[in-house]
Amino acid sequence: MPITAPCVVALTWRLEDAQDRFIDALDRPVEFLFGGDDLLPGVEAALSDQHTGFETRVQLEPEQAFGAYDPALVCFEKRAVFPEHLECGMQFDGLPAGSATEGMPKDALYTVTEIYPDHVVLDANHPLAGIALRLRLKVEDVREASQAEIEQRSVGNEVVTLLGSGAGGTMH
Fold first, then answer.
1. How confident is the prediction along the chain (172 residues), in pLDDT tens digits per residue?
2. Which of 167, 160, 166, 111 lies closest to 10 in space, CA to CA?
3. What's the rounded Cα separation, in Å, for the pair 105 and 147?
4. Under CATH, what is the fold of the domain 71-123?
5. Pair 141, 52: CB distance under 8 Å
6. DSSP the chain
7. Torsion angle of C-alpha atoms 76, 172, 67, 60, degrees rounded to 10
8. Which residues make up the CATH 3.10.50.40 domain(s) of the chain?
9. How many other C-beta atoms are found inside a 10 Å radius of the C-beta of residue 162?
10. Domain 7-66+128-163 grouped into CATH 3.40.50.2300
11. Residue 171's pLDDT is what?
């Protein structure tokens, strides 16, 4: 079956930055809706009209992936508004209750990047913003999409957000 929208592709991949530093790998196939919100346009373009067994390398510049890094999406919050247990890399949907920061997106996913005794640095950029990505992809399977997958524009697995089109996506 050729890869045409809408269909579901099962992929494995190795994801690296432009300096060939490892970021992520899928060793077991994971399904994605081709023609929905699961895959970035550059990935879909590389897979279009291909078949099971197809392998390729794709390079995506930041503007083709998760956008440029925006320093305006970094803010400082008082340490007191966070739970006692806090680690770099933890993520919060929106700013914490009691936040004093104004002008930041309310619905963004914020990542803790630094912790100091009096304040915490939060970053609302996607973890891969500003990074050129190199993907080695292999199509493990192709199947027809269900009506539910077509309607929700996604297969609905958690890994999807790594390559999905949503700028607020997260790596799981």
1. 999 999 999 999 999 999 999 999 999 999 999 999 999 999 999 999 999 999 999 999 999 999 999 999 999 999 999 999 999 999 999 998 888 788 899 889 999 999 999 999 999 999 999 999 999 999 999 999 999 999 999 998 655 445 554 433 333 3
2. 160
3. 34
4. Thrombin, subunit H (2.40.10)
5. yes
6. ----SSEEEEEEEEEEETT--EEEEEEEEEEEEETTTSS-HHHHHHHTT--TT-EEEEEE-GGGTT----GGGEEEEEGGGS-SS--TT-EEESSPTT----SS-SS-EEEEEEE-SSEEEEE-S-TTTT--EEEEEEEEEEEEPPHHHHHHTS---TTHHHHSS-TT----
7. 150
8. 7-66+128-163
9. 24
10. no
11. 34
- CA angle, residues 148, 151, 156, in degrees to nearest 5: 65
| pLDDT for 159 | 54
Whole-number Å distance between alpha carbons of 23 and 136: 12
Residues of the chain with CATH 2.40.10: 71-123
Longest dimension (CA), the chain: 58
